[in-house]
Amino acid sequence: MKRLNDLTEQEVLALAISNEEEDSRIYHNLASKLAKDFPATAKIFEDMAAEEQEHKNMLLDLHQKQFGDTLPYITRQDVKGFMKRQPLWLMDKLNIDAVRRMAEMMEYQAAEFYTQAAAKAQNVEVRKLLGDLAIIERSHQHMAENAAEIHVAGDAKSQEDLNAKRMFLLQIVQPGLTGLIDGSISTLAPIFAAAFATHSSHDAFVVGLAASIGSGISMGLTEAMSDDGKLTGRGHPVLRGTVCGVMTTVGGLGHTLPYLITDFWTATTVAVIVVILELWAISWIRWKYMDTPFSSAMVQVILGGILVLLTGVLIGGF
Question: Residue 134: which residues within 8 A CB-CB, separation 6 or more?
């Protein structure tokens, strides 16, 4: 993957064209899904989709003028730092808050991209257009906010509150949830394999402690190195890496600590209860902050957890 600073001006324009085209399709699909129940909100997204198409045409005209008719193929997936868009077909139910947060993040990221790309551009026309688009995309954040406020009476959220919530979600909740899921689920197999292979609480505790701390270090470094936060607004990588690493360790220690109990079967019973509570907590967090239907989150997380736990028990029983 390339970094934004590694792209030529032609590649920057091509990336911008691809982004505008994809975002336009997303807004159009959002409008179609919301048209029946929220026609006013759907109209906002139809207008935003049309604007994104206008931006794409402006960028195409400038690219043709500066570089000719051959457009390099490059998408946001090819550039480090871009967040992937959530497929709409995976969202069972669309609520206004979820739509607003999704659209807000799309526009925030687009504005950051144009701001940084404009600062890097040497060509005057390219620099001017990218700078103008950065301003326009920032204004779209307010349009996304209005999409919620039309239907939420008395909603007087300030821009500062919205920014604070966005930063909390991106910098704390997302990396923390990623770590908690990994720590809670991936450590199940080695801990319970060791437990049932040795029937020793001490051995299970040692393996669990090593797996939890090791996973925490690995996940923390992975998260910190995955994204510098400049385009995505996800904040300093050290903060995200620390949150992810700590929550990974905590997730593993939850069902490791019961093995401080000397009696093996008592320790295992307590550990299984802790696992159930962990999986429920993960499902609740996904429902509360990530707009995942609670029933769907429960099925995904609990099914995965049970399969990993049984894998450890079966392997340990050999």
Answer: 111, 114, 115, 118
